[in-house]
Design a protein that fits this description.
Helix content: 10-25%
Number of helices: 9
Strand content: 25-35%
Structural class: alpha+beta
Largest sheet: 5 strands, mixed
Number of strands: 25
Radius of gyration: 23 Å
Strand order of the largest sheet: 5-6-11-10-9
Distance between the termini: 29 Å
C-alpha cells in the first residue's frame, strides 16, 4: 500500500490529508468489494436496513475474498492460540459476519460494526437546530475518507465532500509526535454525506475522530477480530507506536462491534530533541555493552522523514530496560526511549519518528547512550553503504 499522508496541511475544503494513494493490483479486489458495500446503509441509525438479496451477496463476496489474505490468516492463528483450539476458515467467516456485520441494538438505534466503522452514520439530532451540522458517528476507515475527499478510484474522480478542520492529538501522551506518525491521523472534519433514503445530503460534523492510514479492508477487519475475540486487551504497539485500541459492543451482543478505533498515545520515544547539532565523536570511549546496534535503514525508498530505522540486539541472557536511554543520530538529534524493554537475545527495530530525515546519506555515526551519558554502543556507516536506497545496513 502506498499513501502520501500530509498531516500538517492547511485546513479547509481544499485541503488533502491523504494526497496520493497507490493500491497494489493484488489488493485492488478487496478494496473494490469493500467500496461496493458503502451504499448499502441508511445514514439515519433509526432506520433498520432490510438487507436485500443483492446486498447479502455483496457482503458474502467480500468476506469470501478476504478470508485467504495474510491479515486474516494471521488473525486466525492468533485467535486459535488464544482460544486453545483450532479455527477453520469456515469458523473465521462466521466470526467476521457476527463481529462486523451483525445488525443489532445500539441503545435505541440499530447498527452494525461495518456500517459504523467503515461507512459512518449520523448521530441523533436531538434538539439541534436544522441549520447546525449534525454530529457524525464512526467513520474510521481511511479509504472512505480518501474517496469522500475527492479521491480517485478506477479512473474516476469522486466529489469532494470533506472539509478538513485540522488535527486533534490532545488525548495523546505525546501530542507533538502524532503528526509525525504516517500510519495514523486524529482529526476534525465535516462531511457532506449523501442521504440515499431521502435523495438529499446531510452536513455531518466530526469534532474529533481518527483512523489508521493505509490499512487494507482485510487488515482492519483482522484487527477488529483480534481485539474482540481474544484477551489481548486494548493497548497495542504497531510499527513502534502505542495505541489504545477502543472497542465498544452492541447492546445485545458482546462480541459484535458497535465501534472500533485507535487512539494514538506515543512512539517508542518519550522525547525528541535537536541535541547539539552533531553526532557523537568517534573518540568517545565506548562501554562494552550488551545492547548492540545491529542494523539501520538510513536511506528509505521515497520520503525519508519518519521512515528511517535502527535495530538494536540484546545479546545478554536477561532483558534490558531502555527507559531514558538515548539514540543519537548523525545530525545530532537525540531520541530518548520511553519504557521500552528488549528481551534476552531479542532484536527490535525502532522507527526514528521526526519532522526531517536523521541519517545523512554521505555517511555518519549512530550512537546508543546510557542514562548516565556513557556511550553504550556506536557504529559508523559510509556514503557507499548509504547510497543503496531501501536497503538496510548490517553492522
Amino acid at each position: 500500500m502506498g499513501t502520501l499522508f500530509t498531516p500538517r496541511c492547511t485546513s479547509g475544503s481544499d485541503a488533502r490529508v491523504i494526497s496520493e494513494v497507490v493500491i497494489p493490483p493484488a489488493k485492488r479486489r478487496t478494496y473494490d468489494l469493500c467500496a461496493r458495500l458503502f451504499d448499502n446503509y441508511a445514514l439515519d441509525p433509526g432506520i433498520r436496513e432490510d438487507v436485500t438479496e443483492g446486498e447479502a451477496i455483496e457482503e458474502m463476496e467480500f468476506i469470501r475474498e478476504i478470508i485467504p489474505t495474510k491479515p486474516l490468516q494471521v488473525a486466525k492463528e492468533f485467535i486459535a492460540r488464544d482460544l486453545g483450539r483450532m479455527v477453520t476458515d469456515t469458523d473465521l467467516a462466521v466470526m467476521i459476519e457476527k463481529t462486523w456485520f451483525f445488525q443489532g441494538k445500539a441503545g435505541s438505534k440499530f447498527a452494525s460494526g461495518f456500517e459504523h466503522v467503515f461507512v459512518g452514520e449520523q448521530k441523533p439530532k436531538g434538539d439541534q437546530p436544522d441549520s447546525q451540522a449534525v454530529k457524525l458517528g464512526g467513520y474510521h476507515f481511511w479509504y472512505k475518507y480518501f474517496l469522500d475527499d475527492g479521491g480517485r478510484k478506477g479512473g474516476l474522480d469522486f466529489d469532494d465532500r470533506i472539509k478538513y478542520n485540522g488535527t486533534r492529538y490532545g488525548g495523546a501522551d505525546e501530542p507533538s509526535q502524532g503528526v509525525l506518525v504516517p500510519e495514523v491521523v486524529t482529526l476534525s472534519f465535516e462531511w457532506k454525506a449523501p442521504d440515499t433514503v431521502n435523495q438529499s445530503s446531510q452536513l455531518l460534523n466530526k469534532p474529533i475522530g481518527g483512523f489508521w492510514v493505509g490499512c487494507s479492508p482485510e487488515g482492519l477487519i483482522a484487527l477488529g477480530l483480534v481485539r474482540v475475540r481474544t484477551s489481548v486487551g486494548s493497548f497495542a504497539v504497531i510499527n513502534g507506536s502505542t495505541y489504545d485500541v477502543k472497542f465498544f459492543p452492541l447492546s445485545n451482543n458482546s462480541q459484535s462491534i458497535r465501534t472500533f478505533f485507535p487512539i494514538f498515545k506515543r512512539t517508542d520515544f518519550s522525547g525528541i530533541s535537536p541535541g547539539d547539532g552533531e553526532g557523537e565523536e568517534g573518540t568517545t570511549p565506548v562501554t562494552d555493552g550488551t545492547v548492540k546496534i545491529a542494523a539501520a535503514l538510513v536511506n528509505p525508498s521515497g520520503d525519508e522523514s519518519g521512515r528511517e530505522t535502527v535495530t538494536l540486539l540484546n545479546i545478554a541472557p536477561t532483558a534490558v530496560e531502555l527507559d531514558n536511554w538515548k539514540l543519537k543520530a548523525p545530525n545530532g538529534w537525540e531520541f530518548t526511549f520511553a519504557d521500552v524493554t528488549i528481551g534476552a537475545g531479542e532484536s527490535r527495530a525502532f522507527r526514528m519518528v521526526s519532522p526531517s530525515p536523521q541519517f545523512r546519506n554521505r555517511g555518519g555515526t549512530i550512537t546508543l547512550l546510557e542514562p548516565s551519558g556513557n556511550v553504550h554502543a556506536r557504529v559508523e556507516y559510509t556514503k557507499e553503504e548509504a547510497s543503496r536506497e531501501g536497503f538496510t545496513i548490517k553492522f
